[in-house]
Design goal:
Layout: H1 7-26, H2 37-60, H3 64-83
Helix pairs in contact: 2-3
């Protein structure tokens, strides 16, 4: 395994993501809720921007692996927003929404 990305670090993130998936599945609700889509879309963009900024910071600090992870989080927020149609993007090269 790559010296920079240890098996322990990768195992940790597999475990965290597996636990998060299980928690999300177990807390599905059919409750009707009022959603302010403008606020939600702004929140998704804010989270994507924050992770993107973090990626720049980590990269400048020489931590390329964490920068890469932060970029993936940023793009994940953008993809999720696109799939929810919070953003009018229509671009299958940049988003997993089509």
């Amino acid at each position: 395994m790559n010296d920079v990305l240890s098996k322990e670090k990768l195992d940790k993130y597999f475990s965290i993501t597996k636990e998060a998936l299980e928690k999300a599945r177990s807390n599905l609700s059919n409750e009707q809720k009022t959603i302010n889509f403008k606020l939600v879309s702004e929140d998704f963009l804010d989270m994507a921007q924050r992770y993107f900024d973090d990626a720049i910071h980590f990269y400048k600090e020489g931590n390329a692996i964490t920068a890469f992870a932060a970029l993936n989080y940023a793009h994940g927020w953008l993809d999720a927003g696109a799939r929810l149609k919070l953003f009018n993007v229509r671009d299958s090269r940049l988003f997993a929404a089509d």
